[in-house]
Every structure is written in structure tokens, then in C-alpha cells.
């Protein structure tokens, strides 16, 4: 019988995708789980596998066209017994060759490992790296793969010892929470009988109308599958570009594309609205003798790669912060000569592998003491700016330039910790962030942030507030500069420029200036910080 394959949900909020490449052709025989095509969503490249074996009878989309979720993607001719009838227990050995959820032998069985909850509100994650291959033997708790959520890089361990039979995702694909991640052959539980299971979807048995409907859809899609790359009324473009065209009331089929095979980009739509034509589509012009054309040669080495994972989240959050929060900046100079001398004297005694006594713990503790006097700096405002919540916990975040992008883990309850306690947490979070393995709990519930740009050499910045917080400070590098002392003599001092950004809806310039002056006092005169501690 002929059965339509319905394009399933391939990501939260994704309703359409671009058909990037067919990996099979009409008339090809496919096996269960064999890759059939690659589709591109706004988030990632996803490979669509065959849920059951059969012969491809129709491809409903041409390469480059937009496929709809929950609509037929292709038609496949399958045996009625394979698609409708359950597999009897007597044929378990036969079913084992085509299903990963079957008994491998009398004392071994294949189980699917379901991707567990890996963070509050997380429904999918990107498969960053497989740490094993199919056929590898693994032990309990051995790391299997690294996955990237919107917040952190998470390592998935094996729950049982066994042999990896099937990896359900490729590197770079999006894995769904509560769905099979990999299949593993493990020892059968004692007393359990081998039972073969199939994952193929069932269809109504003996339904002649279903066959008729599939044939009708195949006929209606025949012109689509055999059409050119960009048929009339359509264009080669990503879903994001199509949404842009719809929002601007532009017929995307009329927009000349500058990409390969006429692909339309956002810049092409913008040029179309201005009445210009893309450079790649312009007719070659005869140049005067001796003049060299450089327009297209400059793009020969351009490289395009998708923005995803932590970088995509950062881009979205920074855009939202700038567009919804009225920022203002306040700068100040700190004289850290005394604090640096104190830290140098204490570093040798208290630093070890688990605790690095850097300047950051002092900055955090001084900030927490100042927040006690100015609680509005440690608050958050609701979406329509009608309520202000004063936060009791001083969860101070620190921006870390990790290998997976910008991460902002925070030290919880700084108001209740000593400087050494804060130092131990800073050391732990820094090591975790730089390896990209920060726990989701360490990234949540921050109340204010510190960005240490000085570690890379900067002095002044205009930091972007980490929404829903209301303030952030950027620390510049320490510089040895001449300054006049109380006696009017010039001496070398160790100075740092700091740059504050505040949410002008709830913080005014006077408030952040007074807050910064108190913070500065604690840092410039460490004995004042000592006396203020409770």
C-alpha cells in the first residue's frame, strides 16, 4: 500500500522548513531509520529518517521549496503487514533486524535511552559532540555525548553498561527532551521474557480510501516535484526571510536573489524595496582599460555559518534588553592601590587548587555591602513597569568568555558569605564556565552582574544589562598612573576605570552615583569594608 509520510514537529514553534537536499530518489528502496532528506529550520539543519522500510513512490517537494509541518513530505510504498499488523511474538528474531527496541538475544536486550529533563523549561538541545560511536562498549556513568541547551553545555552519561547500537542524532542536530537519544544493548533483567516492540505508526487496516487519497495527493504533487528550483509564485529562501517578506507585503517571487541558485536573503528584500538590484544578479559591465573590478572578488573567501546555541541566546537576549530597557552609563575611577597590596599579602596564604584569591571576591563582597544600603540596585521591574520587586538575595553574576560563548553564572547569597567563601565559588564557576559545563542552576536567579573587560585590556565600556536585572558594571584594566597625594606630591597609583549601566526606568543618575561612591569607599579603603561586615 502507499503511505504518506507526514512531516513531524521538528522544533518548538517551527511550522515550516526548507527542503535542503533529498538523500533518496523516487523508486529507491529505503530501510527503517535510513536518512531521507535534510531540512533547514530557523534553528538548525535536521535530517528526516524513514520510520519504516519501503519504496519511495513520490517526493512532494523540490529541493529549495518550503515544506509544511504536519503535511505530507513524501509517499512510500510499504507492505500492509509491516505498516498495519503488530509483529507477533514468534517473529521477534526477524523484527530485531529492523527495530532498535527489540530483544537482541535471550540474555541481552536493546533499550532506548530517553533524553531526560536537563533544565527548567528546556524542550530541546543541540547535539554538540558524540563521545562514543555505534558498536562501542560503555560502562555505567560513562559520558556519552555533550548537548547544548539555551543556557549551558551538558554532558549526558550512560545509565547502564552495555554496547551502543544506534545513535539517533547527528552532530549539530536538535534532540528532543523525552525522546530517544541513543539505543544501547544491555543485559536482560532476570525473569523478563524477550518481547519485540516496533515503533512504526499504525494506519487503518483495509482502507481503500487511504490508498486512493495518497494517490490523489501524489498526482497533485507531481508538478511540484518535477518543477524547477524556483517555480512560479515561489522563491529559494529560508523561513525567516519569507516571514520578513510577508511582514513587508512583498511578493518574494519577484525579488531577485543574490545567493546561489537565486537564493533570496534579507538584504535582497531591502534592496528590492529601495528599487535596487543585487550585485550578484547585475549584468557585467565593460570597464575602462586598466580599471579592475573588485566588487565580486572581495566576497570570494566569505564564509557563512549559523548562529546557534549560547551565541543565539545571547543575541536574542541582548537585542531584547537594548530594545526594552532605557540604558544610561555612569563612569568612575577607583584607586585600588591599598586593596591590591592586601590581596597580594593574603594570596600566598589562602590560594590553593580550589580557591584562587583574585580581585573579583573583593568586588563582589563590597558590592553586596553597598546593595544593602541601596536595595533598588538589586531589584527587578515587571514587564509593563508597574511593579518593582526588591530582591533579598545578592546573587552577583560574572560574565565569562567561555569556549561556547558568553556565560553569566552567579554567586548565590553573597550577603551571607565571607570573602573566602565567595572566592571558592568564583573559582568553581570560572572553571565550569570556561569548559562550557555550567550547571543550569548557576545561571539562574542573578540579581546584578559584573563584566571584567579589563582582563582583555579594555578600560571603558557601555555594558548591556542582563535582563531582568537593572544594573551591570564593567571593570577596566588596572593601570599604574601618576596622581597627586594629600601632600601635593606625585606618586604612582594603581587605578581602574569602571563603567555602570542602569535601567533608567527605576534608577536615576544620583542613585547610582551615591551607590558607586559607597562601593568605591569599600574598595579603596578595605578597612571600611571589614567594619561594615556583619
Automatic annotation (TrEMBL):
It holds the Pfam family E3_binding. Residues 2-77, 110-185 form the Lipoyl-binding domain. Residues 89-107, 210-228 have a biased composition (Low complexity). Residues 87-107, 210-238 are annotated as: Disordered. Residues 236-273 form the Peripheral subunit-binding (PSBD) domain. It comes from the Bacteria. Its cofactor is (R)-lipoate. It is an enzyme of class 2 (transferase). Its EC number is 2.3.1.-. Keywords: Acyltransferase, Lipoyl, Transferase. CDD domains: lipoyl_domain. Belongs to the 2-oxoacid dehydrogenase family. Forms a 24-polypeptide structural core with octahedral symmetry. This is Dihydrolipoamide acetyltransferase component of pyruvate dehydrogenase complex. It comes from Shewanella chilikensis. The lineage of its organism: Bacteria, Pseudomonadati, Pseudomonadota, Gammaproteobacteria, Alteromonadales.
Amino acid at each position: 500500500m502507499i503511505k504518506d509520510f507526514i512531516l513531524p514537529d521538528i522544533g518548538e514553534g517551527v511550522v515550516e522548513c526548507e527542503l535542503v537536499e533529498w538523500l533518496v530518489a523516487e523508486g529507491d528502496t529505503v530501510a527503517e531509520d535510513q536518512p531521507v532528506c535534510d531540512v533547514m529550520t530557523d534553528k538548525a539543519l535536521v535530517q528526516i529518517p524513514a520510520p519504516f522500510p519501503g519504496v519511495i513512490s513520490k517526493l512532494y517537494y523540490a529541493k529549495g521549496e518550503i515544506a509544511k509541518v504536519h503535511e505530507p513530505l513524501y509517499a512510500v510504498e510499504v507492505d500492509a503487514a509491516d505498516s498495519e499488523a503488530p509483529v507477533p511474538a514468534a517473529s521477534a528474531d526477524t523484527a530485531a533486524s529492523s527495530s532498535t527496541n527489540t530483544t537482541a538475544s535471550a540474555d541481552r536486550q536493546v533499550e532506548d535511552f530517553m533524553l531526560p529533563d536537563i533544565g527548567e523549561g528546556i524542550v530541546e538541545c543541540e547535539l554538540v559532540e558524540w563521545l562514543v560511536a555505534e558498536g562501542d562498549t560503555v560502562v555505567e556513568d560513562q559520558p556519552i555525548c555533550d548537548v547544548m541547551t539555551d543556557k549551558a553545555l551538558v554532558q549526558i552519561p550512560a545509565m547502564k553498561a552495555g554496547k551502543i547500537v544506534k545513535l539517533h542524532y547527528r552532530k549539530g542536530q536538535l534532540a528532543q527532551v523525552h525522546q530517544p537519544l541513543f539505543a544501547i544493548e544491555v543485559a536482560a533483567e532476570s525473569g523478563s521474557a524477550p518481547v519485540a516492540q516496533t515503533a512504526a505508526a499504525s494506519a487503518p487496516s483495509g482502507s481503500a480510501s487511504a490508498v486512493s487519497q495518497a494517490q490523489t495527493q501524489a498526482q497533485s504533487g507531481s508538478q511540484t516535484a518535477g518543477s524547477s528550483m524556483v517555480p512560479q509564485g515561489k522563491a529559494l529562501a529560508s523561513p525567516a526571510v519569507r516571514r520578513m517578506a510577508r511582514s513587508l507585503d512583498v511578493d518574494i517571487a519577484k525579488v531577485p536573489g543574490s545567493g546561489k541558485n537565486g537564493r533570496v536573503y534579507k538584504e535582497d528584500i531591502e534592496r528590492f524595496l529601495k528599487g535596487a538590484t543585487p550585485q550578484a544578479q547585475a549584468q557585467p559591465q565593460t570597464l575602462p582599460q586598466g580599471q579592475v573590478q573588485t566588487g565580486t572578488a572581495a566576497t570570494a573567501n566569505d564564509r557563512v555559518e549559523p548562529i546557534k546555541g549560547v551565541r543565539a541566546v545571547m543575541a536574542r537576549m541582548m537585542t531584547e534588553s537594548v530594545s526594552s530597557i532605557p540604558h544610561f552609563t555612569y563612569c568612575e575611577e577607583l584607586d585600588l592601590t591599598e586593596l591590591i597590596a592586601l590581596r597580594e599579602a593574603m594570596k600566598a596564604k589562602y590560594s590553593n587548587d580550589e580557591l584562587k584569591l583574585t580581585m573579583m571576591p573583593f568586588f563582589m563582597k563590597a558590592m553586596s555591602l553597598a546593595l544593602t544600603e541601596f536595595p533598588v540596585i538589586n531589584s527587578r521591574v515587571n514587564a509593563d513597569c508597574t511593579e518593582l520587586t526588591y530582591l533579598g538575595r545578592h546573587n552577583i553574576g560574572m560574565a565569562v568568555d567561555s569556549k561556547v560563548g558568553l556565560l553569566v553564572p552567579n554567586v548565590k547569597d553573597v550577603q551571607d558569605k565571607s570573602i573566602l567563601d565567595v572566592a571558592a565559588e568564583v573559582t568553581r564557576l570560572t572553571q565550569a564556565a570556561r569548559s562550557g559545563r555550567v550547571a543550569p542552576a548557576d545561571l539562574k536567579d542573578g540579581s546584578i552582574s559584573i563584566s571584567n573587560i579589563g582582563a582583555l585590556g579594555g578600560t571603558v565600556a557601555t555594558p548591556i544589562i542582563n535582563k531582568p536585572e537593572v544594573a551591570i558594571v564593567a571593570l577596566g584594566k588596572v593601570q599604574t598612573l601618576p596622581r597627586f597625594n594629600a601632600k601635593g606630591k606625585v606618586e604612582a597609583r594603581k587605578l581602574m576605570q569602571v563603567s555602570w549601566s542602569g535601567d533608567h526606568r527605576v534608577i536615576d543618575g544620583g542613585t547610582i552615583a551615591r551607590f558607586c561612591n559607597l562601593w568605591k569607599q569599600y574598595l579603596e579603603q578595605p578597612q571600611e569594608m571589614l567594619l561594615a561586615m556583619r
